[in-house]
Amino acid sequence: MFDNDGTLWTEKPTYTEVIFAFEQVKALAPDHPEWKEQEPFSLILENGLGALKEIGLNGAIDALTAVYAELDDAQFAARAADFLDDPHLSAGRTYAATTYAPMVEMVDYLRDNGFEIFIVSGGTNDFLRTFAETAYGVPPHQIVGSVLETEVMLDETGVSLKRLPQLAYFNDGPTKVLNIVQRLGTRPTIVVGNSDGDLPMIRYALQGEGPRLAVLVNHDDDAREAAYDRGAVDAIAAAAPDGDNFILVSMKNDFAEIWKP
Known about the structure:
This protein is α/β, with parallel strands linked by helices. 39% of the residues lie in helices and 18% in strands. The protein has 11 helices and 6 strands. The strands form 2 sheets. It has a 3-stranded mixed β-sheet, with helices on both faces. A 3-stranded parallel β-sheet has the order 4-5-6. Strand 5 (213-218), helix 10 and strand 6 (246-250) form a beta-alpha-beta unit. The longest helix is centred in the N-terminal third of the chain and has 19 residues, at 52-70. It is globular. The two termini are 23 Å apart.
């Protein structure tokens, strides 16, 4: 089981899905003149990503859920595809091409050797499922992400789904363990992450019987990607460069290449 943001692809200068959501706020703003006076939308429209300093992650989630509720599946998929082909803000490549070469190689290696690969991430199922199969070969039913509240609509024409502008749950920390248990019903053999939010599922995996492995990606390469430990201090302290079954991997020292070609 792999985390996505900061593990399989970059999460700098901020989460890619947040950038996508903010772009959708701007795109949908002409249909919502009230957003000019309503936070967090007014701050996003005025300051772009700079609004994050004021609205924080909770404000970003409010914006994300609001715009996602406006889009049906076809609209969402088309907008996500267009966005992923755009140039990334700092990586010098498209958003879709900001996957880490060694991590994609690890996914492929494990799959080739009989492992079933799941992505367990804080990103939403809606967004992850638009690119994960192409990027990593992970199909939609093997994605465990955050979920918007959704209403099932029944009428004489059939069944339809309507996203509501709020999260059912944010898939991070202990919630990752809960969803692994409830949705998959199996304890992971290998867990790969990069932050304190991945520690609960790492510990859950390592408590199982038999051979177990946890890998933590340490972002310490400010020349080729970014150097930071915010939100990962506890996880970095728990892992070790020469660890037995909880390994700390240095991007600076252990990644021959950062980006997948």
